[in-house]
Amino acid sequence: MRFDYTHWQGPRPEDEAFIRQMMEIYRNLLLQTGGDVDEALRWMDHFGREYGFFDGDFGLEQFKKLLQDSGEAERTPQGFQMTPKGERRIRQDSLNEMFSSLEAGGTGEHRTPVAGKGGERLSETRAWQFGDDLANLAPLDSMRNAIQRGGIDDLSVTEDDLEVYEQEHLSACATVLMVDISHSMILYGEDRITPAKKIALALTQLIQTRYPKDSLDVVLFGDDATQVPLKDLMRIQAGPYHTNTRAGLQVARRILESRKTVNKQIFMVTDGKPSCIREHGRLYKNPFGLDPRIVNLTLAEAAQCRRKRITITTFMLAADPTLLDFVRKLTELNHGRIYETDPSDLGAYVFRDFVRNRRKRLH
After folding, report:
1. Are residues 180 and 145 in the same domain?
2. To bridge 86 with a disulfide, which of 72, 189, 305, 340 should be the other Cys (CB 3.0-4.6 Å)?
3. Can you give the pTM of this predicted structure?
């Protein structure tokens, strides 16, 4: 992802829109710096001076005070640090961005189409049954039934007249988001890691606020694979690594095997072919072409996920024919899905698939 900056022609500091846009720039820089507030502020100062939005009475110090007053950052002996409120705000902004990119009339909310208990109220009603919660009573429909049965002059409501609102049944879903942190994710000036980071933050916010019975885990894979706590998502960065897809799938599968839900899925965001594996504690790597030894062991892990009823959806950030050939084989073995996309619309693809998957049992 690239940002092009020109001389500031937006609102001025006295306008509310100016503050909103300054905060948007700051939060994007915070994602770029891995949550380092001081570094983000240094970039804010640089851009502010170069492009003119820190001219006049509003400068970096005034912006720092704004951050403190808003509760998104705090001054500590070690410098400025992001607060939990600031982290929540970035997660919410990421979520809003993902949903705003979904097509109108798309898949919508991730609910099952089966009516049941424990979900949100639908507009449809049905006859009351013993055990139904009276809090879901549909009063107008119940009164209509009573009037149709006995008339307005001798109005009485019986058990047979009662109707209740249907409720949607929300299926529980366990998701592991696998993020490629190999060197190619930032190679040649391309920033593919920030969109992947936004997706992780947005999924976290969505699940924590809307689907608390769901689970989300994030696995990073480079030379090796490791699970990263959700609280550390802001600090995800790509490094000088190869691509150990097999290790990522292994860690993701073990996590999902421990989950009690029926619906289990892996979302894998990658831009490179598998180029290494770990065997007997040693790293075997071959970045040239598709090494049969690496590929076969990686495909075997995809097949193992299938046997465990874990679906793999791969989101490709590159159109390399070699990678495409590999991912097609992996998808065929796993009976999963594959999407070719680019960093600018990656979020829409991931969220569209996420909400669609939760409309049904995956297996």
Report:
1. no
2. 72
3. 0.70
